[in-house]
Amino acid sequence: MKRIPLTATVIIAEAADLADETGFDDVTLSAIALRLSVQTPSLYSHVRDRAALLDGITALALSELADRVAVAIAGRAGRLALRGFAEAHRVYSLESPGRWQSLQRRAGTAAVESSAARCFVALTDALLLGYDLPPGERVHATRLIGSTINGFLALERIGSFDHSEPPPEVSWRTTLDALDALLRAWPTDTEKIHR
Amino acid sequence: MKRIPLTATVIIAEAADLADETGFDDVTLSAIALRLSVQTPSLYSHVRDRAALLDGITALALSELADRVAVAIAGRAGRLALRGFAEAHRVYSLESPGRWQSLQRRAGTAAVESSAARCFVALTDALLLGYDLPPGERVHATRLIGSTINGFLALERIGSFDHSEPPPEVSWRTTLDALDALLRAWPTDTEKIHR
DNA sequence: GGACTTTACCTAATGTGTGTAGACTGGCGT
DNA sequence: ACGCCAGTCTACACACATTAGGTAAAGTCC
To answer: Which of A80, A143, A153, B103 could share a disulfide with A76, CB 3.0–4.6 Å?
Structure first.
């Protein structure tokens, strides 16, 4: 019985797989140890504690998602880039629900300061190049896009759309079209005169 | 030492308060028992198990939020109704983070089938009356609004906006204006011809 | 008003999970 | 060959969820 030597990377990868299978909240050191045919305390040589392990999953997910987004928007602009960006998120959230869930929480500094996080900012910025927005509005557009995409996927995941027709896919497409239309005709400041 | 008799309602209310103070994930039966000056197992006479307790918090939060939304959009239409609706959500999420968090998860049937849930659907529907959308598009608009609002609040809560200027409030206002503009000029089907 | 039931709490005990301390081992450099 | 040391183990302490069964007081029936 040959044993692959334990490393933080192996443990975190196993944890991420477990998260995808049973849900992020159910990731437990004992379960991971069992899957790696190891006693639970052995894990503590490589991982500080459970919080650090979960942060590891977050960092992993962030970097995986950034990779996917990068290839999804490469060579595209405008609506196509937006669709690629959004679709990459959605596919990831459906394929790897546990990993995706690990992103929906306040992350530890390790994850926040990772290179993947910085990469992500750059990618979202690149996405907006295809739409010409006043520089001061870029942040708001970024935040809006993030809110809508993440919000949609979150609601889809928790089943908010299960009790009405039609299936989420249809609304998803509509939502992306709406976002594109919005970015194309970004409301100018004059409109804010209303109160 | 007179003791207020334990009931499911009291326990759930205490749990909700605890959730607001220490975070939804940290709601523990022992902590609640301590706060109520009672032994942990005593709670089981009134609450089936932890899952049921959390569902109770969700149902409570749903009904509280529905109440707030109701007064926030009463007598308003269009942009003002949208703002009221959104603002009610935001205030709730900031005032009662734990309760709000309890809504960001797949809920048990008890919460889903509660009258508050049905009330909520009616309220959102009422909100859209002020914008005249083709009937088939109403669902999509509902889902889009929900996605964006919930998504924004979720990102704000986990600190996604902490690393860039300006403060979230500004983007929040912009986001609501954008949503309003979008609903006012809902993209017609012809626009979907692109691919 | 006494016997009984019900209610609402208790104590005791089990199982699972996190995390620490210290013993054991097998490969490595010298 | 010898000791070092990284990495694993066993043993343990503690927290929480949950079950079982006991007890005492309040309410109900005759």
So the answer is: A80
Closest to A154 (Cβ–Cβ): which among B104, B163, B192?
Answer: B104
CATH number of A8-187: 1.10.357.10
Answer whether any strand D atom is within 7 A of the Cβ of B36.
no
Closest nt by CA–C1' to B43? C9
Give me the pLDDT at residue A85, please: 97
Q: Which CATH superfamily is domain B57-189 in?
A: Tetracycline Repressor, domain 2 (1.10.357.10)
Indicate the pLDDT class of residue A127, thresholds 50, 70 and 90: very high
B84-138 tens-digit pLDDT: 999 999 999 999 999 999 999 998 888 888 898 899 889 998 999 889 888 889 9
CB A99 within 8 A of CB A20: yes
Report residue B82's pLDDT band, with 50, 70 and 90 as the boundaries. very high
Percent of chain B's residues with pLDDT above 70? 93
Which string of b and e fits B104-126 if b means at least 16 CB within 10 Å?
Answer: bbebeeebbebebbebbeebbeb
> Does A185 contact B185 at a Cβ distance shorter than 8 Å?
yes
Rounded to a whole number of angstroms, the distance from the CA of B80 to the nearest CA of chain A is 8
Structure tokens that stand for B106 in this block: 């797949």
- What's the token pair of residue B43? 């709670």
Closest to B175 (Cβ–Cβ): which among A147, A159, A194?
A147
